[in-house]
Amino acid sequence: MPAAELADTQLRDPKQEAKAVALMETLRCVVCQGQSIADSDAEIAGDMRAMVRERIQKGESPEQIRAWMVERYGEWVSYKPGFSAGTAPLWIAPLLLLAGGIWLARGRLRTRKKN
Fold first, then answer.
1. Does residue 74 contact residue 84 with C-beta atoms inside 8 Å?
2. Helices within the chain (DSSP H only)
3. Dihedrals φ, ψ of 45, to 5°?
4. What is this structure's pTM?
5. Which residues 6+ apart lie within 8 Å of 49 measured at CB?
6. Nearest CA-CA partner of 90 in 103, 105, 79, 104
7. How far apart are the C-alpha atoms of 49 and 66, rounded to whole Å?
8. Read out DSSP for 41-66?
9. Is the pLDDT of residue 64 over 80?
10. Residue in 72, 83, 60, 59 with CA at minimum distance from that of residue 27
11. CA-CA-CA-CA torsion for 75, 82, 47, 42, nearest 10 degrees?
């Protein structure tokens, strides 16, 4: 199948294209997994870029498009997941690790002061 029309073609309006590119850089390719759809050469990434550009061209906001992509592909597609029951561990774990590190460092410093 040929690539989607807007997969590699920029929008004529530079403001719309800037919005599209900014959004594409925050969406993960579902095939490549480590690349954004802006950087990926996978066919599905091209289709996703085309969808983003088409929706931007129609006047949808980047937030609406992100919500649609997340609904279609799951939270994993977004490099900036929202807070929900499924993503809570991703948001809470760093805070718990930071608190644990501070607690350990504090205990270590107290031990040094006593000696």
1. no
2. 14-24, 43-57, 62-73, 88-114
3. -65, -40
4. 0.70
5. 4, 6, 7, 8, 20, 24, 37, 38
6. 79
7. 12
8. -SHHHHHHHHHHHHHHHTT--HHHHH
9. yes
10. 72
11. -60
